[in-house]
Design a protein that fits this description.
Length: about 475
């Protein structure tokens, strides 16, 4: 039976507490991500039993419903048919606030708010980065086969497109941050664009002493940076609210924009941009230091525990660090290898399930999920639909991911571009492609073998068979 997407969307809206309980909704590759006014009103148990829903989790203040490849269809129906804000807004009311209770305070909640803001700001940009990274992958493959193509105008234009996403990253981040803060993105983009203006970049390259109000200006290359744009967008949002509030309506149209930009620029140039740049470098160097002490073991540990990070809904928290790492030191030796090898472990476990099971429907589903993990880099259907449900394959995922990750770390695998965590993205490892290829092969084979050896309950329950029937109908 095929999924009735109208009914699925209606059920989801009902079970999350209705339209009135939704502050906003967004999505990633496989999940609907709701910001709810009161998460206690959501009926998680009923949603988990809904055909077409692979799982439900809550993390980073988002109520996340895993739908796999159907997420785009359901999201579009929700936005079209329901009165729901589709903006990426992390400033939703939490359950305590919506019920008139005191909002949580403290270091933990502040940290969660900051992290949710960063992730929400970066999420719209990550898709573009992956796309640009995969274009770079294809260009690398083509140029390795046909070296002279690098001299053609067509090749150069595609290369410009791929590089633009990284060079102008602060502008894209500023846009995402402004949407998070419910402010006008044009103000944040304008202020950040000043840091990338050709004449400003010429000052950076010229090493000329520059000052504002007798205060020395730190001339730095802010292209491909993250934190300067986030800090700038936050400042601009506060200035926008302030000036539009205090300036009388008759003068607001003329003077508010002028004062917002005029007040923001010196603060950003003199203080926030340099602080953000330095802080970003410190974060990257912290992980470089950890990696230098523990070596490949860190990659293995991260790959082994990644199933639980995904289940917690916190898998997007590493995206800003990956972007900053590649921009700062030119590669990512920790997160991208661990992500890739976790995906390979999930896919390998599904192959093991397919080899061992006597259930034809389960074999078909397992093969489809394995292809999704290994080729497409999408793991939620495999994790929730196969490995977690059957339990023992999840142990295979953890063991093989840990061993494969450690192997990649000790062999020195490094990702030099952003790209999806799939086997198609191996060229992003450039000179270390042999190291990551060995680790990938070991992880997949080992995961499949361990799954076959450990075995699992090959008699799915009725509810499981109903879910598999719905998923199989959409393959």
């Amino acid at each position: 039976m095929a999924i009735d997407f109208d009914q699925l969307a209606a059920t989801i809206i009902e079970k999350v507490g209705g339209e009135e309980n939704i502050s906003s909704v967004t999505h990633c590759v496989t999940r609907l991500r709701f910001y709810l006014k009161d998460k206690e009103k959501a009926d998680t148990e009923a949603l988990e039993k809904t055909p077409g829903v692979l799982g439900v989790t809550y993390g980073m203040k988002q109520y996340q419903i895993i739908l796999g490849k159907n997420v785009f269809t359901v999201f579009n129906k929700i936005v079209k048919d329901y009165n729901v804000d589709a903006d990426d807004n992390p400033k939703q009311n939490n359950s305590e606030a919506s019920e008139g209770r005191t909002d949580k305070k403290g270091i933990k909640n502040t940290f969660q708010n900051i992290l949710a803001f960063i992730i929400g700001s970066v999420t719209p940009f990550i898709t573009v980065v992956y796309g640009a990274g995969m274009i770079r992958v294809m260009l690398t493959i083509i140029s390795s086969i046909w070296p002279s193509v690098e001299e053609t105008s067509t090749f150069m234009m595609f290369n410009f497109l791929a590089l633009a996403a990284f060079y102008f990253m602060p502008i894209l981040i500023a846009y995402g941050a402004a949407r998070q803060l419910k402010s006008n993105p044009a103000f944040a983009i304008t202020v950040v664009s000043m840091l990338l203006y050709p004449d400003f970049m010429a000052l950076v390259e010229g090493q000329i002493d520059v000052s504002m109000f007798s205060i020395p200006v730190v001339l730095a290359d802010y292209s491909q940076t993250l934190l300067p744009a986030l800090l700038s967008a936050y400042l601009v949002s506060k200035l926008e609210k302030f000036f539009y509030k205090v300036i009388p309506g008759v003068l607001r149209t003329v003077f508010a924009p002028m004062l917002i930009l005029g007040a923001a620029m010196p603060i950003v140039v003199l203080f926030l941009a340099p602080i953000g740049s330095i802080a970003g470098e410190w974060v990257v160097q912290l992980f470089v230091w950890i990696y230098g002490i523990t070596g490949g073991l860190t990659v293995g540990i991260l790959a082994a525990v990644f199933p639980f990070i995904i289940m917690s809904g916190m898998n997007m928290m590493f995206a800003p660090v990956m972007v900053q790492s590649i921009a700062s030191i030119g590669f990512d030796a920790l997160f991208r290898p661990a992500l890739l090898l976790h995906n390979m472990a999930e896919g390998g476990a599904c192959l093991g399930v397919a080899m061992r099971t006597k259930n034809k429907e389960l074999r078909t589903e397992a093969i489809g999920c394995a292809i999704g993990c290994i080729v497409s880099g999408v793991t939620e259907p495999a994790l929730y639909g196969i490995n977690l449900r059957l339990k023992k394959p999840l142990f295979a995922v953890m063991i093989s991911g840990g061993i494969g990750g450690a192997l990649a770390g000790f062999l020195g695998a490094k990702a030099f571009e952003m790209g999806y965590s799939s086997i198609l993205a191996l060229p992003i490892f450039e000179g270390t492609i042999i190291a990551i290829t060995i680790a990938v092969a070991v992880t997949i084979i080992l995961s499949a073998i361990i799954t076959v050896i450990l075995g699992f309950n090959d008699e799915p329950s009725i509810s499981t068979m109903n879910k598999m029937e719905v998923q199989s109908a959409n393959k």
